[in-house]
Predict the structure.
Amino acid sequence: MKNHLKTTFTPRQYMLSKDFEIFYYDDSNLAGVKPHTHDYYEFYLFLSGNTTMHIHQHSFDLITGDVIVIPPGISHWIENSAPQTPYRRFVLWISKDFFQQLVLLSVDYEYMVSRALSKEQYIYHNDTISMNLIQAKIFQLLGDIHSDRFGRDSRISLAINDLLLHLNCMAYEHNVPYLPTGTPTLFENLLIYIKNHLEEDLSLDRLSEIFFVNKYHIAHLFKKQLGLPVHRFILKKRLELCRNALLSEPGISQTFLRYGFHDYSSFYRAFKKEYGMSPREYRERNRSSLFSQ
């Protein structure tokens, strides 16, 4: 997958496309890139390397899963303290005109940029699960770009909008726990806990023990709020993460074990029931469309 997606590094700091450009770099060549600004928006997903990002008057030692946003006119540059270590990242450029078109659709698209400009919040840390979800959306976008299927342009439009909206939602959720928005309800706390502990025991008995609430009350809350039993909601969330990870992780066994399934047979049955195909079929079909020219 990496060889197909790799972009030859270029120090070019201007856009050729009127809307957006996306790159996957896997190298250690930083020659020719000095402190600079540009007139478009830049988003990073950092994958690996021994790298420091300098933005304005701030310096950030990057860790796997970091998402960075750099608005136009903000000086920045990269320092790689271990040139022998590959520096892997996705880089997305968004033109001013395209960004304004998105904001006209919804102000939600400008949350990250607004935080960067008003609070100098340029970086967001993500765990492995969150990073895999972002990668899956990037792979979907790249697959649509390299495809010649019917509806290609519409698919690209949907994929780039979905990716950017997801990044803004990610940023908002990072900040919400620290904003004075009042005390979350029991149901909201349950959702947050489940989202952050999908690889752990999430039985009704365990949730009841953690939240000191009768398990039947928890079951009633989920049925009332979502129309789903708790176990069904958790299963759908785990399957969603597995589906996204199948496109970016090397083995199926590592995937289902990581996200809370104890054996392959139960994972296989649940996945096929939810998506109408086996995990292997899903990965092969989507990887095939990703690299078709």
Remarks:
- The beta strands are 20-27, 41-48, 51-55, 58-61, 67-70, 76-80, 87-94, 123-124.
